[in-house]
Structure formats: C-alpha cells, structure tokens
C-alpha cells in the first residue's frame, strides 16, 4: 500500500463522517459549538440613535450654542421630548437622542450655569458621539453563518440579536481504546517492561476544548479476540479512537480486529512523519480512527486528523487547523520521503525545533508550542528562511 498524502487522507476522513443531528440550546450553553443554520437578527442594534458619551444632545447643525438645557434622557428611561433648535438635552451613555438632536457635546467640553450651556471647544461636528440606529446590525440581517464557531463574541452577538436559543450539532461521543500488553493505568506502579498509559489522558485533554463526550474504554491487550470485542463495545460511539497496534508487527492487531468486528477500512499509512501507520474506516455508524502508539505520533496525528474530524462532525465549516507563516531561528536538515511535522517553539528570534524529533520523545513534545510543516523532499533550510507553522495553542 503506497503512502497517502496528508491532505488527501484528511478529505477522505471527513468524507467518512455524517454530520451529527441538530439540537437547540440556550445561547450561553452554545459556547464552543458550531451553528448548523444561519442566524439572522431579530432586532435592530442600536434600537434607536443613542449617545456614545455622557453630556448634552443638541441640534449642532442649526445652532452653534449657547443652549438652554430643557430635558434629560437616560438609558432605560422614558423617551425624551422633541428638541428645538437652541435647546439641549442632558444625556447619558446609551440613552436615546431626542428627536431633532444630531450631536453630543461631551460634558468635559461644556460649561453649564443653571440651565445655560456653552461649548468650550470649537464648533461641534454633526453626528459627533452618536451611534445611529441599526449601525451595528439591522433586524433581518445575517448575524452568523452556519458552520461558524460560537465563541464569546458570537454568543454576545446572538444574545443582542434577540435569540434565546441557537441550532447547534449535538456533542460528539468519542470512545478511546489504548492497546498494548505493556500498558498499566495512569498512576499505577510499573514492573519492568511496563509503562503508564499516557495516550488516553493526552487525547482526552486535546478533546476537552471541543464540547465532546469522551469515554475511555481502557487498556486492550494485544490479542485478536479481545481487540475485536473492544471494537464491538466502542461501536456505540460516533468516533472510535484507538492508539497503538497500528503498525506491521506480529502483535499489531488493530487493523485485523477492526475488520473482523465488521469494520470497513478506508485507508492505512500516511506520507507523514511522525504518524505513518494512521488508519481510518467505518464501523456501523461510527468513524474509526486508529492512531499510532508512540505518544508523539498520536499527538501529531490527533492534531491533524482527530480534532478536525470532531469539528467537522459537529458542523465546523473550516475544521482543519490554521497555519501561519514564520521565520526559522536555526537551520533544519533536508526532509525525506514523508512530510515532516517537526515539534518546535516560537522565540523572538524565530522558530526553533525541539532537541529530539523522536516520535517517543514526550519531554521534547512538552516543550513545543507549534509544529513546523516541511513537505517531503524539502532541501536543508537556513536560519532566516520562511517556514509554515501550525500553532498548537
Ligand atoms: N518494521 C516496521 N516497524 C515499524 C514501522 C514500520 O513501518 N515498519 N512503523 C513505525 C512507526 S512510524 C510507528 S509510529 C510505530 C507505531 O506503531 P504502533 O502503532 O503499532 O504502536 P505500538 O507498537 O503499539 O507502540 C509504539 C510505542 O508507543 C508506546 N505506546 C503505545 N501505546 C501507548 C500508550 N497508550 N501510552 C504510552 N505509550 C504507548 C509503546 O509502548 C511503544 O513504545 O511503529 C514503528 N514500527
Ligand atoms: O511515523 Mo512514526 O509516527 O515516525 O514514529
């Protein structure tokens, strides 16, 4: 089987997934979700011409001052009466302008004696410190597009747009299987030949920002019938995620067990380093993603495949991780026949790759805050050369 390019594998993986059903949730509960439908405004914002400052509303176009203070307007107060030329209305931030007023004289630029008001500065420009009605958005206008992520600003916009609830995809359910006879549960004492299973906690941490429900099905021993049973147990989930047992060794049972459990494999082996033995397929209504066991390989493939898959299933229009241009602070060797995803960190002088690029080097991984993307067949790079990075946080 030849090695599949990363971008092709990503689009084949997305094509395996069916979007999750929509649910309607109270707007504050939608933080971190994606919209399944466009959202339009149910009201104008601002609802009227409002003052942006504390001061006085005047008819500056017709009367340069002085003015007679004749009324008051407060946010949430009764509507102020019509303003005649030569009159001023005491006004506060967020309060509606009286009909006829066109500008706000801020109180720092005003001298008031009794009800007589004078401007201390040059003549007021018409429209000064006024927020026109509907200048933020208009009733019926598009506020948020289907497929957009709902972060804090989008939550505020939906609430101001008059919405109580929004249509979002339901949470994805992800089942985790960690394969390997050498693994013991995190925190348990290890005998020679054993190590704590770190992949499931790492992946759960990576998924924790994505509003999905993670079920850790624990450690699966390296035997075919046990691994088949684990797949059957996991098939209730939307995504079955395994780590380890993905390569070509005599104890790598994940692929045959997946097929024996009724799964249909779509691809195996990607043209990337780390992460070559990645595989994906369908089991019932679940998408299966088999990550390599090496912790760094599992981390990098989860960044490039798992997180985009979850985002895609939950309705994201742009599920792939964003990349950014950067400059190298230190040279890099040529790449081989696979695309390199080098663990690196950002400094003021540019990007520096971590000391060990071994796919089991977790101490080096923990120092990284980005991946450098180096296509297969790249020539050696020098300090100062441009590179593409994928930020990790
Ligand atoms: N002859 C070949 N050997 C290997 C190839 C190959 O093409 N030909 N590919 C290598 C590559 S690349 C990778 S990546 C690894 C991946 O192998 P597996 O997915 O089968 O992973 P395991 O053998 O089960 O484990 C690898 C390594 O990671 C440790 N591990 C596994 N699970 C966990 C966990 N949950 N927590 C912490 N550490 C874990 C495991 O102990 C091994 O040390 O295969 C190469 N071999
Ligand atoms: O591809 Mo493996 O993930 O190089 O170590």
Automatic annotation (TrEMBL):
Has keyword Protease? no
CDD domains of this UniProt entry?
MoeA (cd00887)
Q: Where is the MoaB/Mog domain?
A: 175-312
**Pathway(s) this gene product operates in, as recorded in its UniProt entry:** Cofactor biosynthesis; molybdopterin biosynthesis
**Which residues does UniProt assign to the signal peptide?**
none
Needed cofactors: Mg(2+)
Q: Name one GO biological process term.
A: Mo-molybdopterin cofactor biosynthetic process
Concerning Pfam families, the annotation shows: MoCF_biosynth, MoeA_C, MoeA_N
- Stretches assigned to coiled coil: none
Recall the GO molecular function terms of this protein's record. Answer: metal ion binding; molybdopterin molybdotransferase activity
In the UniProt record, which is one GO cellular component term? cytosol
Keyword flag Transferase: yes
Gene3D superfamilies according to UniProt: MoaB/Mog-like domain (3.40.980.10), MoeA, C-terminal, domain IV (2.40.340.10), Molybdopterin biosynthesis moea protein, domain 2 (3.90.105.10), Molybdopterin biosynthesis moea protein, domain 3 (2.170.190.11)
What are the UniProt keywords, alphabetically?
Magnesium, Metal-binding, Molybdenum, Molybdenum cofactor biosynthesis, Transferase
Enzyme Commission (EC) number = 2.10.1.1
Recorded hits in InterPro entries, A to Z, give: MoaB/Mog-like_dom_sf, MoaB/Mog_dom, MoeA-like, MoeA_C_domain_IV, MoeA_C_domain_IV_sf, MoeA_linker/N, MoeA_linker/N_sf
Q: Which reaction does it catalyse?
A: adenylyl-molybdopterin + molybdate = Mo-molybdopterin + AMP + H(+)
NCBIfam families for this protein: Glp_gephyrin
The protein's job, in short, is: Catalyzes the insertion of molybdate into adenylated molybdopterin with the concomitant release of AMP.
Q: Which family does it belong to?
A: Belongs to the MoeA family.
Q: What's the protein name?
A: Molybdopterin molybdenumtransferase
Organism for this UniProt entry: Sphingobium indicum (strain DSM 16413 / CCM 7287 / MTCC 6362 / UT26 / NBRC 101211 / UT26S) (Sphingobium japonicum)
